[in-house]
């Protein structure tokens, strides 16, 4: 790309960022053409045509009923999904529907507030516990994603986050959801530990669920969805992600066996996926697969991704492949990492160009 084009893009990105109104601000202005910074490169769009919908394999990620059947069978379903898809959905997960609906409503209220109110939270500083922005990697990615995000670092275990830091419109709903989702996270970590043949407490004792972060996404209806992307392809850096979404229209896709597969939403279900750190500590047994969100003409789509990413702050905590999983036949395939270094590497890169795990092959 010519320098002048680069320069123009930078300026357009800065202008957009300075509005602090996000993608929502663009749709409110009634635009019907997609601004250039959101248009995917021609080679990527051409690639897309090769994966025509009609070709899509009619397969689905497993839907697992957490209250049905014997524990051994549930562990087996979780293990099998984690080793292949890296994704599954859960029903009867124990989070009341009213709590999920409340969380979605709170996120909607936040993103639909006036810009003057919302602006107070606009920040690109990863150390802020509560911050709102459009595209955390705006200045690093090739294409901006059609999405705004409110991110919240909650640490209910040690009460790091004072609820008064949260916007009033979503305060109570977030505190409530956060408590429930942490509990579900621990339940899932137990099942996943057992699936590795370890004691159920193993992953929790390693503090995989010590801190969690809620990324509350808002994807407005997109004027030219075929040219845009909702969230560019990536894998999640943490251990485990629990995703709540408001629409029953599929938008999230996982890259599986060389094609993009729709994750068809199931009423009342949550989508679970394995992150890079769990792939690392399980020594590659569980898979952190790439996924993305396509842009849609119908909106807004609201989703809340809860990342269990281990302890926050300068803990110096080290993670590596779990000793019990290392044998002569299956030696460690990853190195040890210091959690802060690893997460900073992730935060300082463009989502579409980087997989943190690639740096830590043994
Ligand atoms: C993410 C993510 C999916 C979604 O936040 O990492 O993949 O549906 N989100 O918003
Ligand atoms: Ni993700």
Q: How is this structure best summarized?
A:
The chain is α+β, with helices and mostly antiparallel strands. Helix content is 30%, strand content 19%.
Low-confidence stretches: none
Shape by Cα distribution: globular
Helix fraction by DSSP (H/I, runs of at least 4): 25-40%
Q: Looking at the chains present, what oligomeric state does this protein adopt?
A: single chain
Structural class: alpha+beta
What gyration radius follows from the Cα positions, in whole Å? Answer: 20 Å
How much of the residues is beta strand, in percent? Answer: 15-25%
Order of helices and strands: HHHEHEHHEEHHEEEEEEHEEEEH
**Taking strands numbered 1, 2, ... along the chain, how are they ordered across the largest sheet?**
1-2-10-7-12-5-4-3
> What is the terminal separation in angstroms?
35 Å
Tally the beta strands.
14
For the sheet with most strands, the description reads: 8 strands, mixed
**If helices are DSSP runs of H or I spanning 4 or more residues, what is the number of helices?**
10
CATH homologous superfamily assignment: B-lactam Antibiotic, Isopenicillin N Synthase, Chain
CATH topology heading: Jelly Rolls
Number of domains as seen in the coordinates: 1
Please provide a written account of the structure.
- By secondary structure, the chain is α+β, with helices and mostly antiparallel strands.
- The chain has a single domain, classed as B-lactam Antibiotic, Isopenicillin N Synthase, Chain (Jelly Rolls, Sandwich).
- 30% of the residues lie in helices and 19% in strands.
- It is built from ten helices and 14 strands.
- The protein has an eight-stranded mixed beta sheet. A four-stranded antiparallel beta sheet has the order 6-11-8-9, with no helix packed on it. Strands 13-14 form a two-stranded antiparallel sheet.
- α4 packs across α7 (171-195) and α5 (97-111) packs across α7 (171-195).
- The model has no long low-confidence stretch (mean pLDDT 92).
- Residues 215, 217, 231, 236, 243, 245, 252, 291, 293, 303, 305 line the site of N-oxalylglycine.
């Amino acid at each position: 790309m010519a320098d002048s084009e680069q320069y123009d893009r930078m300026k357009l990105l800065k202008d957009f960022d300075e509005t602090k109104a996000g993608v929502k601000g663009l749709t409110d202005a009634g635009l019907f053409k997609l601004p250039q910074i959101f248009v995917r490169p021609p080679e990527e769009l051409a690639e897309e045509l090769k994966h025509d919908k009609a070709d899509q394999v009619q397969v689905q990620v497993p839907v697992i009923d957490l209250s049905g059947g014997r524990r051994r069978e549930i562990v087996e379903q979780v293990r099998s999904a984690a080793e292949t898809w890296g994704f599954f959905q859960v029903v009867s997960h124990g989070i009341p529907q009213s709590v999920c609906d409340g969380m979605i409503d709170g996120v909607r209220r936040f993103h639909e507030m006036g810009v003057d109110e919302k602006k107070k939270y606009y920040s690109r500083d990863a150390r802020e516990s509560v911050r709102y922005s459009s595209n955390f990697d705006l200045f690093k990615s090739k294409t901006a994603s059609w999405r705004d995000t409110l991110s919240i670092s909650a640490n209910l275990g040690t009460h790091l986050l004072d609820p008064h830091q949260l916007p009033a419109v979503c305060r109570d709903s977030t505190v409530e959801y956060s408590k429930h989702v942490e509990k579900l996270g621990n339940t899932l970590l137990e099942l996943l530990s057992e699936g590795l043949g370890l004691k159920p407490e193993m992953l929790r004792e390693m503090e995989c669920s010590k801190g969690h972060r809620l990324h509350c996404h808002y994807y407005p209806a997109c004027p030219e969805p075929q040219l845009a992307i909702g969230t560019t392809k990536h894998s999640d850096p943490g251990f485990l992600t629990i995703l709540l979404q408001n629409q029953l229209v599929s938008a999230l896709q996982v890259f599986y066996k060389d094609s993009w597969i729709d994750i068809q939403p199931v009423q009342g279900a949550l989508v679970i996926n394995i992150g890079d750190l769990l792939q690392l500590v399980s020594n590659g047994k569980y898979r952190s697969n790439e996924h993305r969100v396509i842009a849609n003409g119908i909106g807004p789509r609201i989703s809340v991704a809860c990342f269990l990413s281990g302890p926050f702050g300068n803990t110096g905590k080290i993670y590596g492949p779990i000793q019990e999983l290392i044998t002569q036949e299956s030696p460690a395939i990853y190195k040890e990492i210091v959690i802060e270094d690893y997460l900073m590497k992730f935060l300082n890169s463009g989502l579409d160009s980087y997989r943190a795990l690639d740096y830590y092959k043994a």
